[in-house]
Amino acid sequence: MEAFVELGGKQVRVSEGMEFSVFKLKDKKAGDKVEMNPVCFMDDKEIIVDRKKLKDVKVVCEVLEEKKGKMVYSFKKKPKTGYKKGHGHRDALTVLKVSGITRK
């Protein structure tokens, strides 16, 4: 069983036991459980995209850790004037592990 879950404005394809990173979830610490409804659900027999049927499907994830993402660095320079300016940014991420996909 696989499902597409929407978190932080992005959709992620998940299956049981998979670990993935999303933008930081507020008020969630390591060890907490997160329960969500998928956008799309795929089984061996069928694909479900109807919202009414998707209410019966739950994706349960466990928060493993919070970490920082890869450093993104931008740099501006103008020739002959000595103007240089740099700016770095790292996203705060939450690592989740899918503990189960259940269907009623």
In words, what does this structure look like?
The protein has one domain (2-103). It is built from 1 helix and 10 strands. It has one helix spanning 51-54, and strands at 2-7, 10-15, 19-23, 33-36, 40-42, 47-48, 57-68, 72-78, 83-89, 92-103. The two termini are 14 Å apart. The model has no long low-confidence stretch (mean pLDDT 93).
Label this structure with key terms.
mainly beta, elongated, 1 helix, 10 strands, four-stranded antiparallel β-sheet, 62% strand, single chain, 104 residues
Q: What layout of secondary structure does this protein have?
A:
Blueprint: E1 2-7, E2 10-15, E3 19-23, E4 33-36, E5 40-42, E6 47-48, H1 51-54, E7 57-68, E8 72-78, E9 83-89, E10 92-103
Antiparallel strand pairs: 1-2, 1-5, 3-10, 4-7, 5-6, 7-10, 8-9
Uncertain stretches? none
From the helix content, strand content and strand pairing, which structural class follows?
Answer: mainly beta
Helix proportion range: under 10%
- Indicate the proportion of strand residues: over 45%
Mean pLDDT score, rounded? Answer: 93
The H-and-E topology, N to C, reads as: EEEEEEHEEEE
Largest sheet: 4 strands, antiparallel
What's the helix count?
Answer: 1
Compact overview of the structure:
By secondary structure, the protein is mainly β. The protein contains one helix and ten strands, in the order E-E-E-E-E-E-H-E-E-E-E.
